[in-house]
Amino acid sequence: MREPLGHDLVREHTVYACVTGPRAFGLATDGGDADRRGVFVAPTPLFWRLDKPPTHVTGPREGEFSWEIERFCSLALRAGPSLLECLHSPLVEHADATGRELLELRDAFLSRRVEASFRGYADQLLGRVEADIRREGAPRWKHAMHLLRLLIGCRDLLRTGTLTVDVGEHREELLAVRRGEVGWEKVRGRIRTLFGEIDAAVARTPLPAEPDRARVEDFLVRVRRASAESAPDPVAAGLRDRPRA
């Protein structure tokens, strides 16, 4: 039985792959599976067909998720935390010439949009934590830890203009929350403080108001053109009549 087209695309056309999650954050405490994220370039001729290639693919490995490069760039320009963290992961597993150029574009995706995007994710996570408290009488401490991590990362990014994925000096503080050693009221106070620090940081941030969309688009056009020139066959690179993902 043939694998889905999406799995073939990930195996054969990945340009960048990294480890994210606890291992990249410096918060891993056991030997659990790694969270892997990647970016693949669907051959340009596949877009000439009625059925377009997938915008994202789960697998083929356990814990692996990949974006087609156009979808990745689009979401990263909106300052999605998971996309930006992917680009800044300290644990890079693969980067070909296109992937290295994508990494060189990291600063083009950073802008003051991170404040709204990161806060939006933090608000959603806080809502889930508070729902757990109402339902179960206590938060899920893992979620509380990641909420603090997200807010610390947002604050420091706004302050410095640089996204650092590894939590560094905050590791023990965050792991204590993960273990349930810090009461919820104290954690809630820390959350309020971080929101206030984010408000102060955004007023003085060195980040530009908007990402460099033109620079990213120029990169994407060149990638598409190079793909079209190297794979002129409309079905492209051995992917003929594969089942859809």
Short characterization:
This protein has 245 residues and is of the alpha+beta class.
Write the layout of secondary structure elements.
Elements: H1 5-13, E1 14-20, H2 22-25, E2 35-40, E3 56-58, E4 64-68, H3 69-77, H4 81-87, E5 91-95, H5 97-104, H6 113-136, H7 141-160, H8 171-178, H9 184-204, H10 213-230
Helix pairs in contact: 3-10, 6-7, 7-8, 7-9
List keywords for this structure.
Beta Polymerase, domain 2, alpha+beta, about 240 residues, five-stranded mixed sheet, 10 helices, 5 strands, 2 domains, about 10% strand
Description:
There is one protein chain. The protein has helices at residues 5-13, 22-25, 69-77, 81-87, 97-104, 113-136, 141-160, 171-178, 184-204, 213-230; strands at residues 14-20, 35-40, 56-58, 64-68, 91-95. With 245 residues, the protein is α+β, with helices and mostly antiparallel strands. It has two domains: 5-110 and 211-230, Beta Polymerase, domain 2 (2-Layer Sandwich); 113-204, no CATH class. Strands 3-4-2-1-5 form a five-stranded mixed β-sheet. A hairpin with a 5-residue loop joins strand 3 and strand 4. The relative contact order is 0.17.
CATH topology of the largest domain, what is it called?
A: Beta Polymerase, domain 2
Rg, alpha carbons: 20 Å
At CATH level 2, the architecture of the largest domain is 2-Layer Sandwich
Number of helices: 10
Major beta sheet summary? 5 strands, mixed
Strand order of the largest sheet: 3-4-2-1-5
